[in-house]
Specification:
The chain has one domain: Zn-dependent exopeptidases (Aminopeptidase, 3-Layer(aba) Sandwich), CATH 3.40.630. Helix content is 36%, strand content 20%. It contains seven helices and 13 strands. A nine-stranded mixed sheet has the order 1-2-3-5-4-8-11-9-10, sandwiched between helices. Helix 1 packs parallel to helix 4. Keywords: Hydrolase. GO terms for molecular function: hydrolase activity.
């Protein structure tokens, strides 16, 4: 893996080079093993938290971990194009618009002992901006090359905080063209429900049951590109003890294996239908 500037990453994408890179400020990673009409993203995978902010933060390391999406990058590892955040959403949230990306409070609890300085905020927002420069370059390249693209936007959610039965998989579709992409959405929901999971975990998959797909990552791509579908895909944290901060590697492995099979099949069908 190379350490590259934002402009170097964008230049490699424009030249259709294959590469694995970490941004020079260590805020995100990107790998392109092949140019294909689909990409994967794990924007909340990151757990890094700038040291200069530690003493100002009222949330514990565990509280931050609890709201992040650990191991989502690992689940997407087999796929040819993966972009993944390295920083915690508690520093800046890549799935929120720039003016909302730095929390004042998080999940009902004040985040900072004292307000961040303009310098502290600008450092974080520059990383947010740079990430989206690369996302724009990547999707533009894929749309130009293939005519259409599908992006698998993988997140996880804390299912134990719900007081009702919730699905293992949830697709949020409220901000996509459902009339145009209805069949692709339903096909993805059906394919997710076929992923076999250990420990008698039910492979249920529903649409807009727990989350509706209101994230900025989806909205940014959808508003900038006419022929790209973003599938905001949430997996319940059945792959860890979310209260004990323990990862279940056998479940992570099963999800990765299931996505390795189902995701390229779905992407291929999508391309065959929408590339025309």
């Amino acid at each position: 893996m190379q350490k590259l500037s934002i402009q170097e990453i964008i230049s490699k994408i424009e030249d259709e080079e294959l590469f694995h890179a970490v941004a020079s400020d260590y805020s995100f990673t990107i790998k392109i093993d092949n140019y294909v009409p689909y990409a994967c993203a794990a924007v909340h995978n990151g757990h890094q938290f700038r040291k200069e902010l530690w003493s100002k933060c009222l949330h514990s390391e565990y509280e931050r971990w609890y709201e992040e999406d650990p191991k989502t990058k690992t689940m997407l590892k087999p796929h040819p194009i993966v972009i993944s955040g390295m920083d915690s959403r508690f520093e800046y949230d890549l799935n929120r618009a720039p003016d909302e990306a730095i929390y004042d409070d998080a999940w009902g609890k004040q985040l900072w002992k004292e307000p961040l300085t303009e310098d502290e905020r600008s450092k974080s927002l520059e990383k947010h901006q740079n990430f989206y420069k690369v996302v724009h370059s990547l999707i533009r390249k894929l749309e130009l090359k293939f005519g259409c693209c599908v992006v698998y936007d993988l997140h996880s959610y804390n299912w134990k905080r719900w007081d009702r039965e919730v699905p293992t998989w949830n697709l949020g579709t409220s901000n996509i063209d459902n009339k145009r992409f209805e069949n692709a959405v339903e096909e993805w929901r059906e394919q997710l429900s076929q992923i076999k999971l250990p420990n008698e975990i039910p492979p249920t998959a529903k649409i807009n049951d727990t989350f509706q797909g209101n994230g900025y990552f989806l909205k940014f791509i959808t508003s900038n590109f006419n022929n790209t579908l973003v599938l905001a895909t949430e997996v319940a944290k059945i792959y860890c003890d979310e209260l004990g901060q323990i990862i279940y590697p056998e479940v992570v492995s099963a999800i990765r294996k299931g996505l390795k099979k189902q995701l390229p099949e779905h992407a291929s069908n999508f391309y065959n239908i929408y590339s025309n």
